[in-house]
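Data deposition worksheet. Section B asks for the primary sequence of the deposited chain exactly as it was used as input, without tags or linkers unless they were present during the calculation. Section C holds the resulting structure in token form. Section D is free text for depositor observations; keep each observation to a single sentence. Incomplete worksheets are returned to the depositor.
Section A, Depositor: J.P.
Section B:
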Amino acid sequence: MNILKKMFFTLFLSLSSFSFAEVSLSGNIALTTDYVWRGMTQNAGDPSVSGGFDLEDDSGFYFGAWAANVLASDGSATGSLELDGYLGYAGSLGENAGYDVGYIAYTYPGVDSWDFEEAYISFDFYGVYVMYAAGEGPANNYAEIGYSVDAGPGSFSISYGDYENTGTNYLVGYDWTVGDFTLGFYYSDFNHDTTSASDEDGGYFTISY
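Section C:
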């Protein structure tokens, strides 16, 4: 039994000991002009639709699933779906600080060679956060630091990430909440560690519910 299965089993037993009233279910759906992850397009620069759900207990335990349409970098239909499953625990370290630790499996039905898993941990303090994801097996590690602040009717954010043996990226964005919808405007830049031919940069827009 791998680590993800062990964690899922432990979380399931923990949640089953609580009453239904302590567990909340939420969902999300989004449309973006380009699915960008850690500075790299996951859909060959084309629009992408995503959606998922989260089941969370009042104690801080959670698990969920998320999916999006993706394409290979050459625009082929290979790996046309990304399906992620994750679980973890989030808590507070005071009024303006918190942490989140968990495990996530990225899967691509039909393209098993793309699958990988990560254990992650993050801390946030007065709008500043640091995150580290340890890749399992041959997967690379990733570290990111960012900051978010309220600005006008929305929030402004900036982040910088370093993907081991892959490249570095930064992101600047503005999220504007209108009712139950969030409009996101972003600019990202990715610089490959070894070849400039794989560098990417550009802006994209996301609407989520």
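Section D:
The chain has one domain: 3-208.
The mean pLDDT is 90.
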